[in-house]
Design goal:
It is built from 6 helices and 2 strands; from the N terminus they run αααααββα. The mean pLDDT is about 90. A hairpin with a 2-residue loop joins strand 1 and strand 2. Helix 1 runs antiparallel to helix 5, helix 3 runs parallel beside helix 5 and helix 3 runs antiparallel to helix 6. It has about 200 residues and is mainly alpha-helical. It is elongated.
């Protein structure tokens, strides 16, 4: 795949995720912040997790892109074995299921649900999405073979720029799906509680 084709694909994915998020946020704030189970994240905690992980990778990408002076015409992208593995593990299955659970680093775990963070979380999430678009724009003339970004594990594992974008797109798909699942469970509980006794 060529770099410019990859950028176009990532933009298409971000646009689809924006529509999905807009629909999610039409729900009542109380429902969005309610945990479906004691150890399960609320829909908004899923967005907070995406903010924490996204900001980490965006900071790394932004620094690498600012430091890069190597301009390049369109070229084949390079992807690493571990990068592909991480992206595939995050991406939901074709039939819309989340893959096996993965352990989340404590530093990107969201705090307990609190509806008082509602407006800030929405603002931060929208800013994060704008950040992805800005980074794609900054990367349009950069040689993607020359840039690697440290993973959350640390500099011992670094991803090519293509993999960094792919992992985060897949990660957003995974947790937007989790947010919808949480919302459905909470909504069902609310419906049962409000239903008149038979």
């Amino acid at each position: 795949m060529l770099r410019n084709e990859a950028i176009a694909n990532f933009r298409e994915s971000l646009a689809a995720q924006a529509i999905e998020t807009k629909q999610l946020l039409t729900n009542d704030a109380e429902v969005l912040w309610t945990n479906p189970a004691p150890k399960s994240w609320s829909a908004m905690q899923c967005l907070e997790h995406l903010i924490l992980t996204g900001e980490y990778y965006q900071n790394g990408l932004r620094k690498k892109l600012l430091d890069s002076t190597i301009k390049s015409a369109d070229h084949e992208i390079k992807s690493g074995k571990f990068g592909q593995k991480f992206a595939n593990a995050m991406q939901p299955t074709p039939d819309g299921q989340r893959r096996a659970r993965t352990r989340t680093s404590k530093k990107v775990n969201p705090p307990p649900s609190d509806i008082s963070r509602h407006e800030k979380t929405i603002k931060d999430y929208l800013a994060l999405q704008q950040g992805w678009e800005e980074l794609l724009q900054q990367s349009e003339q950069v040689n993607w073979e020359k840039i690697r970004v440290a993973s959350l594990i640390g500099p011992i594992l670094r991803f090519y720029i293509y993999d960094a974008f792919a992992i985060n797109i897949a990660h957003q798909n995974r947790h937007l799906l989790q947010a919808k699942e949480a919302l459905e469970k909470v909504s069902l509980t609310y419906q049962k509680e409000s239903a008149p006794n038979a």
